[in-house]
Design a protein that fits this description.
The protein has 5 helices and no strands. By secondary structure, it is mainly α.
């Protein structure tokens, strides 16, 4: 696990958008934009594939501004869901089903505290 986690406890270093943006890999960004446009029924371009981490104050993927998990964590003044007294809840349950590695990271972090 890297030192930078998303609000939901996904490891930023394992995210293909984060990787492509950090590497400045235009071909990878174009590939992601094509695939995600089909998957999410939208029109993304390589310029949309940016991310310095959803909790950063710089480049974030556009959906981060609509993410209910990020909104909850930010509203509570936390860094991620692992810092919340609840941990797993209705707000993050949808993501933990789709990305069980995020829940595993949350549980790993909570077991250390």
């Amino acid at each position: 696990m890297s030192k930078q986690l998303a609000a939901c406890c996904l490891d930023c270093a394992s995210c293909e958008t984060y990787q492509a943006h950090q590497a400045g890999d235009l071909a990878k960004k174009q590939d992601i934009a094509i695939r995600w446009s089909k998957h999410y029924d939208g029109e993304l371009t390589a310029n949309d594939i940016v991310c310095d981490g959803c909790m950063s104050n710089s480049a974030r993927f556009a959906w981060c501004n609509n993410c209910p998990i990020r909104a909850c964590v930010t509203e509570k003044g936390l860094n991620n869901c692992a810092e919340c007294e609840i941990g797993t809840c209705e707000t993050n349950a949808f993501l933990f089903k789709a990305a069980p590695e995020a829940k595993a990271n949350l549980e790993k972090l909570r077991s250390k505290s």
